[in-house]
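Fold this complex.
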Amino acid sequence: MSYTLPENIVDPVKLDRLAEVAVKVGLRLQEGQDLVITAPVCALPLVRLIAKHAYQAGAGLVTPFFSDDQIALARYQHANDASFDQAADWLYEGMAKAYSKNAARLAIAADNPLLLSSQDAGKVSRANRANSKAYQPALEKIANFDINWNIISYPNAEWAALMFPDASPEDATRQLADAIFAASRVDVEDPVAAWEAHNAALKERTTYLNAKNYHSLHFKGPGTDLTVGLADGHEWMGGASVAKNGIICNPNIPTEEVFTTPHALRVNGHVSSTKPLSHQGTLIDNISVRFENGRIVEAKASRGEEVLNKVLDTDEGARHLGEVALVPHSSPISKSGLLFYNTLFDENAASHIALGQCYSKCFVDGANLTPEQVKAKGGNSSLIHIDWMIGSDQIDVDGVNADGSHEPLMRKGEWAY
Amino acid sequence: MSYTLPENIVDPVKLDRLAEVAVKVGLRLQEGQDLVITAPVCALPLVRLIAKHAYQAGAGLVTPFFSDDQIALARYQHANDASFDQAADWLYEGMAKAYSKNAARLAIAADNPLLLSSQDAGKVSRANRANSKAYQPALEKIANFDINWNIISYPNAEWAALMFPDASPEDATRQLADAIFAASRVDVEDPVAAWEAHNAALKERTTYLNAKNYHSLHFKGPGTDLTVGLADGHEWMGGASVAKNGIICNPNIPTEEVFTTPHALRVNGHVSSTKPLSHQGTLIDNISVRFENGRIVEAKASRGEEVLNKVLDTDEGARHLGEVALVPHSSPISKSGLLFYNTLFDENAASHIALGQCYSKCFVDGANLTPEQVKAKGGNSSLIHIDWMIGSDQIDVDGVNADGSHEPLMRKGEWAY
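Structure:
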């Protein structure tokens, strides 16, 4: 039992910039706004800096909630069976109340990807289900984008050891910190300006794609020949976007993707994954699936095939797509060559598709659509939303118009229009 | 900015015993009971051990809330003026809900007594007032003893430096840890048995005092000539007591006091403090106040007088007493000769009185009294409850009967009946 002590390892200037970017770009925190932070206790040095920047920006009250891996494990090691159906519903209801009073929300992702991998899978799944159910009132307000929110990341020694198994714990943590800083664009003198430029570049892409209003996308490359129909009235999003409280924020840091909603019934052909997928402590590699009319009718993987098939059996929506995203092969995260075992990073290294639930915000006037209207336009629904990478420097992507004509979008993984 | 690292300094066997005593004696946590913990982040090693013992005792879910001195200071250093009227009402309402569902509550006290001493007194007072008001729904359930609860302590480097200014930070922390372990009676082989014996000794005192049913107490010594009327139907308590949920627990560890409810309108005379009071980051020393018909009409202090007067202005109840407690001068904490700058310890080194809210449990059949009935019997109500020490080896205490006759209770600070 020990603290991780990254404050002695992590570059303090870049860490302060990350905190500044979280407050000024990620949240665009407004004067008088309260802030709720969830973070692992190892991220304390970053939370302290975020509190400083938040109060400097005029925050009302900053309320941090710290979790701890050892306390989480103590439950699996010592608790009675009945414990695994419990969740802190009173806490999540409280958070939901804070969000309805316009508190902003910042999450720091620094999970050990393998924390629960050797625990009883049934208990893990019951605890997750109980927690998801209790969390629903708060999650709804985040998922519906009622308020400005942001996720950023912080190095954790166990996570670093997984990514850099040959390095010493200190070196591994330092390398992970540097990778997070680079991906989060805080390794430059003026990170806020860098984010403005990046948001503008992503905005150009979404403006172009929305004007084109393609009927579908066509992905072609080794092991892949896939047509992804786009939902009726789909809207491309990327980078900064407007929350319902009127604040323009960057929910994910890093972010490199532009993304929209596919049509759940108009996906055909076959596709191969280009990076391993880390799902609940298991690696799934060399995925290869075949779609017929939007449904996955055949699925293989060289590793983790059983877990993949369990995922696909979650519900009917798990066999259909809920998101398609384009990311150039030259994105900084892709160029790092690192596998982060964390979707916040890995989904920004390559074009990808997601099984499961779609985002209603990825429709024109999405904020005002009912679930029935979303479905009628081709939006998929499911309990899951799992991204996996299908882009590489060997993949071409075309935009396909309603009349069947093709226009080049990406060639060898790079933008080509 | 650094972590305190007491887990490398503090005796791990005694620390584990402290966690065990908190769960088995302090809370007497029941199978299936949830547990809410509030703790400074420096107490993480103790919180981890408490989580282990709680789950071993059959806890449902353990939910810790960590506070951090640096984040608290960031607010005073950087926040807008309006921030100091904010509080996390949604969080305290959530805690109140957890307690109404029978969650137990453990607080770890490890505050730096001087944390806020150089901050603006007006802002400190406004922030405390906003927080007390927001905390009220949760505090009520603790103060009314609806559930089993416990406070224990943990060393903090800044606190230790204040107590042992000539020692190195490591030595000071080790000495504070040893003082906490001794006061908490975990420096013996079987601390659970030691607590059973101690609870029995306190029970003898309360049984005697309850049989006497005095009309008032009279304190006399240097700077003190004070008559404290006791509330109608008051009941003396001390050591273990029964919460309304039926669980026999030890709310305070350590505890050496026997205590009851004074009559809010029948306190007369003057009294001087015998130890400095550390109140939310400020030291208040050499307090001297005069009561007329229960109300403080004059208050002085050689240090912190401004803060004292702000406290008294919180509400009308802040000028009246809510508790009177007797502690022999030979108590182990008193004999240690240490000033802890922490009420949990210092109130167990000397007889004391408390400004503000009374404990409804300190009435015969208190669990069934309405707030109106408590008030009619002389019970005080306020947003605050602040203990300060008036006992020493120079103070005599008499029990005064309704007919005006006096009986000796303490002489030169020791039990004398």
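Chain B is about 35% helix and 25% strand.
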